[in-house]
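Co-fold these.
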Amino acid sequence: MTDTTPSTPGQLELAHLHSSLADPALESMNFLNEVAGRYPDALSLAAGRPYEEFFDIEEVHRYLRRFESHLTDELGLSPAQARRAFYQYGRTKGIIHDLVARNLAVDEGIEADPEALVVTVGCQEAMFLVLRALRTDDRDVVLAVAPTYVGLTGAARLADLPVRTVRSGPDGLDLDDLAVTVRQARAEGLRPRACYLLADHSNPSGLSLDLATRHALLELAEREDLLLLEDNPYGLFSAGADRPPTLKALDTRRRVVYLGSYAKTGLPGARVGFVLADQLVSGPSGAVSLFADELAKIKSMLTVNTPPIAQAVIAGKLLEHDGSLLKANEREIALYRDNLARLLAGLAEAFPAGSGVHWNTPSGGFFLVVTVPFRADDELLELSARDYGVLWTPMHHFHDAPEAAHQLRLSVSLLTPEQVDEGVRRLARLVDDRLR
Amino acid sequence: MTDTTPSTPGQLELAHLHSSLADPALESMNFLNEVAGRYPDALSLAAGRPYEEFFDIEEVHRYLRRFESHLTDELGLSPAQARRAFYQYGRTKGIIHDLVARNLAVDEGIEADPEALVVTVGCQEAMFLVLRALRTDDRDVVLAVAPTYVGLTGAARLADLPVRTVRSGPDGLDLDDLAVTVRQARAEGLRPRACYLLADHSNPSGLSLDLATRHALLELAEREDLLLLEDNPYGLFSAGADRPPTLKALDTRRRVVYLGSYAKTGLPGARVGFVLADQLVSGPSGAVSLFADELAKIKSMLTVNTPPIAQAVIAGKLLEHDGSLLKANEREIALYRDNLARLLAGLAEAFPAGSGVHWNTPSGGFFLVVTVPFRADDELLELSARDYGVLWTPMHHFHDAPEAAHQLRLSVSLLTPEQVDEGVRRLARLVDDRLR
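Predicted complex below.
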């Protein structure tokens, strides 16, 4: 909104702009940011941004120098070639693909062909590239496990691709509902092209799939000829010792397009993500290409390159930690684990059995969902921020199922451990007052 | 293309991917890159990349430190706030909008409201944001002065927005043809939403509009209720002393959306561009927003933020030169001017009057167009690269008019002055052999 006198006519009309601009999801995000902005002193159990206390600008310089020495000392580039790598337009698919492939091997046990990787401007661009590629006409739809990350919903709107939701159920994915949804869409003459999900510590539900469900999902994808779009920004932040393999690590039939993010594990300000797309694409006259090469063509029309300078920063961090972000994030992993344990302990203390308040118990990540016996809507959030000094996210922003009206997403990523304790106490006061 | 055994079936079919992937423009770019890659020793009068001999990685570190001190010493941010500016997700419209606005005031005499700016991942993202916003349904079309920059063609394909071309004529824009094209489209029930052009040193034609044409174009835009999309990556590279004002500097009625690029004047590897969109958008219930805010909503679904680290590099360069890229690029401007003069002198020497070879004489920038009395097609380019050691760009890649078949685009941006001289000599040998 800009300050304009009533006599100034608008030159454009919203009704004559792309339909994504009228999407309620945009208003949701605006509202949530606006509330957070109006109550800067409220503790945020809402924000999903990574922890800030470890930030250090000198690291950026060190990472850039590490990548430079990698180019010259390890790869044998001349100084002029190294300068060009930093300064000039680069390869459309990215200049750090070998390092990303090594990272996937080290941390995830995924054997990725570096040529099947496209380095993107955050995972958001990767989602848009994939959805845009899969959209040929009005018959195409994408499926998404609900509640759904708003970034997927936004990218799909922008690609004119309708989203059909699949129930997550208590375990992260209702496989029967997925099969029914696929068949129903086909019966309507539609083409369900892919199903989007987070298998690990999902945003916003906090849920993870167990190993049996992962295998069953891959079988269903094969049977129903469906791609799976696996988004995995939180997989490293496991609270327990063991991490189940990603869908991509289990994928023997190129059914999984893997969407990677370095926003939480690398450096958010670099905005580097990637997509691993090793599917084969048949063209006319029998030519076969990698899906990654088709995505790169779309990228060439969208952003041309992911900034080489930003890629260099991430490359330096990967190099400094022998390709392992699990190693690079030891402090962060411990912090998030501690915060999640404190949040769970605080909830258990505040809401004993019979209180009517319950929540899920994620095995890691940033998020969990609390269910309360009253409406947890935008109005209550406003009251919570103003009178109780605590922010959270009403689940109806991610999900239009009836239960969402009574659910809150809580996040533990931005607060110090002490702030988590205090945040739960404030939330408990709000809930107690509503239950009275 | 990947190496696959014939028995491996493709899992996806190109025919079931987005139509932009079947666009001949993509094959063009692939072909041109591929020829350049096969003949690395050929002198490139084809590449439009900026000159590389001045690149210096230490500058990147210096620019980052300059922006950091700007945040803390000049804007009074705390060290923690400065760290967050570098590290964390930032404002969707960008974090260097004040500096970009100052740059526009200093170098272009454009008084920009910083809130009307969106900092983008190169100018390419800016083009896509605008075209996507302007596309509501099949009736929308965009006009573009032909021959047209391939990036615009690509972004339009990706936004499902057909392009109707307008003749440039000998002076850069045929205003009568523009008026006829607008009316013709309307008569067909279409909505021509905007006309895209480079007013200064256009890619690929090299042409610039004179001042009278600029004024007449703005009047036509007002009369026909048309937006102008002014793309200006080369405006600073004027060979003469005077630069005419940009369309945006002359725009008193918010008719011009200004597409800015720092790829040639800042640092290509930062991939930072911007769009100045001060148009007013009327929503339902009388709300009025800036077009920039609508573009930012699309950006939030596409790339979320332009990498703050990359913005910081450009910010540091702007700060180091008091907001002036004209000042920052003194060496580059002199180099391109010298190269263009050498190219023109070399052509005049090689092809005297009556030779049947002619060319235009741009007032600056990277490009000019040579017309020859034989077909200058991809086959000839291949021969030129292999047997004569010189690369250029067949104009048919930018334009399907009949004359394009006999035209070559030459660029002077990547070569040293001595290489320009040698490049013209090699081109002259090719042309002489064809004329024999």
